[in-house]
Write a structure and sequence with these properties.
The protein has 183 residues and is α/β, with parallel strands linked by helices. The chain has a single domain, classed as Rossmann fold (3-Layer(aba) Sandwich). The longest helix has 19 residues. GO terms for molecular function: GTP binding; GTPase activity.
Length: 183
């Protein structure tokens, strides 16, 4: 039996798009009763993807502007970013291009991204404002490895989100470390 790989997956996106619910439901298999804004929180999840056992260090970040200077400190050693927007919030979708992608590109340009459309259960009630087609366009625009649409409330595509994040992290080519040389 081989050693288990550990991959850090950092979740970003606007406040109230469902980042914490995504992680909470995946790791605890229950939906949180109330909204509590996250500053930073960590979860651990285990998954086997394509025969590889992985321990996921799941980092939940604050989407609020108050934490803009603090948030990038959590990006170090990330294997994959989950960039989340809610299908019920046009502004969260637009902020992927205007805020989240530029921030990640600045601090961690070589780290793969999985784009995650949350709260797809809103489509059944007609409260969704972002379509799947728009999500696909956004995926191409930010060069994300995948787009996964999910609902933490209905537990739809929860495993797929993390399987795709692990696949993206495992596919990433390691950056060779430079040795310091004196001339």
């Amino acid at each position: 039996m081989g050693t288990k790989k550990t991959i850090k997956i950092t979740v970003v996106g606007d406040g109230m798009v469902g980042k914490t619910c995504l992680l909470y439901v995946y790791t605890k298999n229950e939906f949180p009763e109330e909204y509590v804004p996250t500053v930073f929180d960590n979860y651990v999840g285990y998954i086997t993807v394509d025969g590889v056992e992985v321990e996921m260090a799941l980092w939940d970040t604050a989407g609020q502007e108050d934490y803009e200077r603090l948030r990038p400190l959590s990006y170090n050693s990330t294997g994959c970013f989950l960039v989340c927007y809610s299908v019920g919030s046009r502004s969260s979708y637009e902020n992927v291009v205007h805020k989240w992608y530029p921030e990640l590109n600045h601090f961690s340009s070589s780290v793969p991204i999985v784009l995650v459309a949350t709260k797809t259960d809103l489509r059944a009630s007609g409260k969704a404002v972002v379509t799947t087609q728009e999500g696909k366009k956004l995926k191409k625009k930010i060069r994300a490895a995948r787009l996964v649409e999910c609902s933490a409330l209905e537990r739809v595509n929860m495993n797929e989100v993390f399987e795709e994040a692990v696949r993206a992290a495992l596919r990433k080519k390691p950056v060779p470390k430079r040795s310091c040389q004196y001339l």
